[in-house]
Amino acid sequence: MSRHIPLLAIFLIASIVAWGWFRAPSASNGPAVAPAPAAISPAPTFVEYTTGPASPDGIGKFFHGREIAQVMGHPAIGWLERTEREQEEAPSKAIAAIDLAPDAVLADIGAGSGYYSFRLSEKVPKGRIVAVDIQPEMLDFLRKKSAELGITNVEPHLGTIEDVKLPAASLDAALMVDSYHEFSHPREMLASLRHALKPGGRIFLLEFRGEDPRVPIKPLHKMTEAQARLELESAGFRFVSNLRPLPWQHFMIFERP
Ligand SMILES: C[S@@+](CC[C@H](N)C(=O)[O-])C[C@H]1O[C@@H](n2cnc3c(N)ncnc32)[C@H](O)[C@@H]1O
Fold first, then answer.
1. Side-chain-facing half-sphere of 221: CA atoms under 13 Å
2. Any idea what DSSP says for residue 27?
3. Which is the closest atom of ligand 1 to the Cα of 108?
4. How far is the CA of 148 from the centre of ligand 1 (A)?
């Protein structure tokens, strides 16, 4: 036994030296580590669009490798307003998860028929919902519906394919439900949204889940979380969370630094 003692001692010393070499430094042991810097506002990165053959539902224009989908035309208002929507997509759960101060201003970008705008309007009795769309027919529908419902704090607003056309720092939050993936100029749209949001303003981004083959929506009308993060983070937004209250959609929150 005694002749093994020197060997044992060498083994122990070698183990201690190796552990010191490989371990991550910690505050109590090892060299001092500088504290992590406070979150730095990410600067937007300019990314070129690319083009290629158009898929049946796409426009042949790509952003960060994703083919942009064709815009859903106003004749499909009936699909947006369908009664089964609650059962399929549970929009009431999404609306419950969008927390807004009573005087908040939220832009519903790609508002369509205003399905979300009207339901959110109750949350902001002293604020307003700016319902932005590029199709005047959608805005006509919104105006008629506002009158029918007697709602006065939903403001139809005509944007362009590149610009939300809203003043600087005028928004507390923005919502995009199943619309972002069909923006023909997502880079410009995100830049205009960054301009229109107040610092700390949030984006609620709902998109059909691209990772989930059970979601019965055409592939170009879905997005993965990774793709959405790639596009919004490179546009200078901070990813906050992806809550999972919905059966078909991501419910992602981003923040303008
Ligand atoms: C699939 S619909 C979704 C409507 C609504 N968000 C909903 O979930 O009921 C997409 C809408 O985005 C609009 N849209 C597309 N590109 C846009 C852009 N650059 N700016 C604003 N709206 C846009 C379309 O006109 C269409 O009304």
1. 13
2. T
3. 6
4. 22
What pLDDT is stored for residue 43 in this prediction?
79
182 Cβ below 6 A of ligand 1: yes
If you measure from the C-alpha of residue 109 to the centroid of ligand 1, how many angstroms do you get, rounded to a whole number?
7
In this prediction, residue 244 carries a pLDDT of 87
Residue 127 Cβ inside 6 Å of ligand 1? The answer reads: no
Atom of ligand 1 nearest to the CA of 185: 19
List, in order, residues 6 or more apart from 150 with CB less than 8 Å away.
none
Residue identifier of the C-alpha nearest atom 19 of ligand 1: 161
**pLDDT (0 to 100) of residue 27:** 29
Q: Pick the closest to residue 128 from 155, 101, 151, 94 (CA basis).
A: 155
CATH architecture, domain defined by 61-255: 3-Layer(aba) Sandwich (3.40)
Question: For the whole model, what pTM was predicted?
Answer: 0.85
Question: 138 CB less than 6 Å from ligand 1?
Answer: yes
Counting from 1 in the atom list of ligand 1, the atom nearest the Cα of 91 is 8
User: What percent of the residues of the chain are helix, what percent strand, and what percent coil, each to the nearest 5?
Assistant: 35, 25, 40
H helices of the chain, where?
5-22, 77-80, 85-89, 91-97, 115-121, 136-149, 186-196, 225-234
Given a cut of 50, the residues of the chain with pLDDT beneath it are 1-3, 5, 7-40
